[in-house]
Amino acid sequence: MINRRTFSLAALTGLLAAPHVRAAETQDQATTAQPDDDVHTMTEFPAEWQGAEEIVLLGYPGMTALDLVGPQYMFASLWGAKVKVVAKTLDPLRTDTGLTILPDVTFDQAVAAPDVICAPGAVSGTLAAMQDSETIDFLADRGAKARYVTSVCTGSLLLGKAGLVEGYRVTSHWFTRPLMTEFGAIPVDARVVRDRNRITGAGVTAGIDFGLALVGEMRDETYAQSVQLIAEYAPEPPFNAGTPETAPPMVTKMMRDMFAGLPERIRALARQ
Prior knowledge:
Helix 3 (65-75) packs parallel to helix 7 (206-218) and helix 7 runs antiparallel to helix 8 (221-230). The protein is α/β, with parallel strands linked by helices. Helix content is 35%, strand content 15%.
């Protein structure tokens, strides 16, 4: 069935995000992607492109901003979906790059059975979140009911701590990927890994790939390709140093040495 509608490119790409306010009615309007009729005209599109998904992105102090913002951009392009950042409180969250994000809802206000729950990563911020019982309990509860349980970068460690990846194939940041065995998971060296309803993205920028892949699944390939085109997502990095294998050996060694104490800290948290 084809409906004749008009739409805004802003709705398609998630650019309709308005400044966050805490009034529930205004917030729903700001975070729900809807076609509108005042900018660009698309005479036909499939009716199934309109959905009603409830998508929850975990927020916590010290998280990596792009881990959240990358997939949030993609999810916000889903017509009809409600995309919300959830945290312990509504206090501003300062990320590891200094960007501040305002949560939409608290843990007790979040939808009980989301279509998607996504955990972003970081380093010290993630380690702190792994030790926060409220955060882990929230992930465990919503993850048990969610249609898709997902993460970006070291957010997979949070899924592991919440008991959500045991026996699943997962990816993570290249530095922490081997440590996923501490949580009973099966590490896979890939940018995006899906095992049943667990979908995980590798380090930081892989969250864009992960988000786009999930858009394609929740709508269809043409919809996802449209989002990719409007986002002009056609990366051509100026350097070929995005993996330990392609980076110069001295750069890889320098980064490994910088985080030399991290594996043991993660193992200790996994054992707790």
